[in-house]
Every structure is written in C-alpha cells, then in structure tokens.
Amino acid sequence: MKNIVLAAGYATRLGELTKDFPKPLLKIGSSTILGRLLDDIDGIDGITRHVIVTNHKFAPIFEKWATDQHYSKPITIIDDGSTTNDNRLGAVCDLLLVLESLPKQGDLEGLDDLLVVAADNLLFFSIGEFVKFAKEKGTSCIMCHEQPSIEKLQRTGVVELDADNRVLGMEEKPQVPKSHWAVPPFYIYLKKDLELVRHSVENGCGKDAPGNLAHYMVEHTTMHAWPMSAGRFDIGSLDTYYEACDLVRAGKI
C-alpha cells in the first residue's frame, strides 16, 4: 500500500505564513504538521512508499525537506505543475496524476492499494486502525465521525451507513443531512478499484475536493466507513494553526 499525501494547496487563509511556504511543513512543536502524520504512517505494516503530490511553487521546498528525512519507507515528490491557487488542478486530478506518474518514474512496486491522506490534519489516533479495518472489510474505505452540528454537516461530506458500516449513500454539503456521519479527508482505494478512479473525472466526478472522488466511488463500488476511534484537528486558518501549536506546547496533543 502506498501512502499518497495531498499537499498541492496554497493555504491562502494562512496569509503570510504560507505565501511562500507549504502549510504541511509548518512547525508544530518539535516536528511539522506533515511530520507528525508520517511518523505514524511510516510504521504501518504494508506501507511501501510515501508519495507527496504538491504544486510547482512548493515542490523544491518539499524536495529539500525529503532529503533530510529518515523514514523507513522512501519518499517520492510529485510536482503537479500548478503555480497559483487560480490554476490549481484540484485534489482529484492530483491523485490521477499520481496514478499516471509513478510507473513513468520507474516505480518497480507498480500500482498498489492507496492510502490517501490530507496533509493538514493532526490525528488523535493511528491510521493503522483504519488500514486494519479496510483489510478486514476487503473494500475501499472512508473514515467517518459523528457530527452533531447541522451547520457543520452542511459544509462537509455526509454518509448513510448500514449495520455493517457499509456506505449506502454519500452527499457533499447537503442542506438537509440524512445522518450525523461526517467524512474527513482520509481514504483507502484498493487496487481493484483504481480503474474506476482513473476514469472518474471523465465520467463526471468533481475535481476540487477529495470528497468528490469518495462520493463518486460510493456510487460505483462497495465501500465501508470506519468510525474514527478518536478526534482530529483540522488546521485551516491562522487561528487553528496557533491553537494547534498551543495544544502541542501544553502536551494536550
């Protein structure tokens, strides 16, 4: 299984901090946002490589960062060619670029099951739990968590589940949510479903948010949802970044 990190955004809401520097590499305590994520994923059995897809502006920074890392699994940086927030490819097209690029780069492992993660979240659980769940179910999978706020549900993906956590349906930003199960940006797409992924955009899948692909896949293959065993911290603004730094300093995360 390859770990695909979506890191091609420009994080415009963080202002000067990310004007010329990628949000995933901002410091959090003694590490970085991305470092804390990879510290967990690198130790998961079956992970063979970390693939970080970023934009042309930040690719050199990620390349330099990668040379200083000492993870047990190799790191590949893929430049999606975009240069501004206005000409960004979108998360789904970035993932398609990964599928196209790895064989050309001589990746001898070939295409594999994919763990797809956002690069701007701090997690209070191990991704290994999610990988174990997917292996048990034998299907592509998404994460979910209970969200009591209707207002927040209206700004995210929402799924309906059966008693076995099979996904019955998914809606993006529904005005009238059909459940309280919200979907964060963490996914597992099995090798057997990658042809569906390859042709998703040409068949009408939205390009921008990674949840667009999950929504598309739910309608075309069997998927299960893993209820998160603990919370997460989404760093989307200056306020949330500084709050995360304070929580780490206080030893709360």
How is the biggest beta sheet arranged? 10 strands, mixed
Oligomer designation: single chain
Number of strand elements? 14
The pLDDT mean sits at 94
Tertiary shape:
globular
Q: Tell me the strand percentage band.
A: 15-25%
Q: Uncertain segments of ≥5 residues (pLDDT<50)?
A: none
Radius of gyration: 17 Å
Q: Structural class, from helix and strand content?
A: alpha/beta
N-to-C series of helices and strands: EEEHEHEHEEHEHEEEEHHEEH
Question: Can I get a quick summary?
Answer:
By secondary structure, the chain is an alpha/beta fold. Helix content is 29%, strand content 24%. It starts with a strand and ends with a helix.
Features:
253 residues; alpha/beta; ten-stranded mixed β-sheet; two-stranded antiparallel sheet; 8 helices; 29% helix; 24% strand
Architecture overview:
This protein has helices spanning 33-41, 59-67, 91-104, 127-137, 150-153, 194-198, 210-218, 238-249, and strands spanning 2-6, 27-28, 31-32, 49-54, 75-79, 114-118, 121-123, 140-146, 157-161, 167-172, 181-183, 186-189, 223-227, 232-234. The protein starts with a strand and ends with a helix. 29% of the residues lie in helices and 24% in strands. The strands form three sheets. Strands 1, 4, 5, 6, 8, 9, 10, 11, 12 and 13 form a ten-stranded mixed β-sheet that branches. It has eight helices and 14 strands. The protein is globular and about 45 Å long. With 253 residues, it is an alpha/beta fold. The longest helix is centred in the middle third of the chain and has 14 residues, at 91-104. A hairpin with a 5-residue loop joins strand 9 (157-161) and strand 10.
